[in-house]
Design a protein that fits this description.
The protein is mostly beta strands. The radius of gyration is 26 Å and the shape is globular. The structure holds copper (II) ion (2 copies).
């Protein structure tokens, strides 16, 4: 609030009385006119512009171990359940954003183009070591920002918008997976036949910060909605060795990732080959946690993937792997 010196207050009061008298004379006793000098904000919410910006795919080019990544912060309608649209804040027009895949030791030259006309956005790569106040800073509407990082640690990482309040940007869809492949690959000696990526996340009442804070999701989903992975199963042949890169983007829930009908014989927590576990029935993924999980599917049939926190599965955190003799 700006302090007004007392003498101006007096002058202003006199002027206001004169203006009020003038109003009374010219318009009778109509008190509905606001003082044009009144600085209070208009009541009610400002009108929000509905947006559906067409998805702009990422542009990724490589020169030796230098990788140039261009992504777009944009507002795009996505379908979170059958016939349920959501005006999402996105990277590149999808939720989750595109899977980015680089190699350990790569230098990332990352450009964020922000075409959201109303909001600054930013990029926080969990895959890199960087000073957040320099490398994760907000890019204003209509601007672009370029940042350089080295991806030294292998793993399955979350990336997300880090603009405050972060929960608002996460709840509205600004996250995805970045895989940093280990320099010498994963140590498993068996050949991998199929590779897929799964990102678990939550949807709340649209753009409702209080709902995000209350953390009672309407949907908990794999790869952005509650139906695609059950209607269009992932495919594998009998005997295939499958590797899944899984990530729990949250923003609020923990995930208990489980594949019905098999054991995950090899698990690399956070996708780091040093964090190896064997014979896992369920993998616990904290919000922003990832893993590489590997297993063999020895019989034909439908194998369900779920979060074994079954309230989450009942809200959509489920998908299928269809195993057939010929993979069809
Ligand atoms: Cu954002
Ligand atoms: Cu983070």
């Amino acid at each position: 609030m700006i302090e007004i010196p007392a003498r101006y207050k007096t002058v202003r009061a006199v002027l206001l009385v004169l203006a009020a008298l003038a109003l009374l004379i010219t318009s009778g006793c109509d008190w509905s006119n606001d003082d044009p000098g009144d600085t209070k904000l208009p009541s009610g919410k400002p009108e929000v512009q509905r947006l559906n910006q067409p998805p702009i795919p990422p542009v990724i080019t490589r020169k030796g171990n230098e990788v140039f990544i261009e992504m777009t912060a944009q507002v795009t309608q996505v379908e979170i359940s059958k016939g349920v649209p959501y005006e999402a804040w996105t990277f590149d027009g999808t939720v989750p954003g595109p899977v980015i895949r680089v190699k350990q030791g790569d230098q990332l030259h990352f450009t964020l183009n922000n075409i959201d006309p109303q909001m600054p956005h930013s990029m926080d790569f969990h895959a890199v070591h960087a000073a957040p106040n320099h490398k994760f800073i907000g890019v204003m509407p209509g601007q672009e920002g370029t940042f350089t990082y080295t991806a030294n640690s292998p793993g399955v990482f979350m990336y997300h918008c880090g603009t405050k309040p972060v929960l608002l940007h996460l709840g509205n869809g600004m996250y995805g997976m970045i895989i940093v492949e280990p320099k010498d690959g994963y140590p498993t000696d068996q050949q991998i036949d199929q590779e897929y990526t799964i990102v678990q996340s939550e949807w709340y009442k649209e753009n409702d910060y209080q709902a995000f804070q209350n953390a009672k999701p309407r949907y908990v989903v794999f790869n952005g909605n509650n139906y695609t992975l059950t209607e269009h199963p992932l495919k594998a042949n009998v005997g295939d060795r499958v590797r899944l890169y899984v990530l729990n983007a949250g923003p609020n829930e923990v995930s208990s990732f489980h594949v019905v009908g098999t054991l995950m014989d090899t698990v690399y927590l956070d996708g780091n080959p040093d964090n190896v576990l064997h014979g896992m029935q369920t993998v616990l993924l904290p919000a922003s946690g990832g893993a590489v999980v590997e297993f063999q599917l020895t019989e034909a049939g439908d194998y369900t993937m779920v979060s074994h926190q079954f309230n989450q599965a009942s809200k959509g955190a489920a998908g299928l792997i269809r195993v057939t003799p010929d993979g069809k």
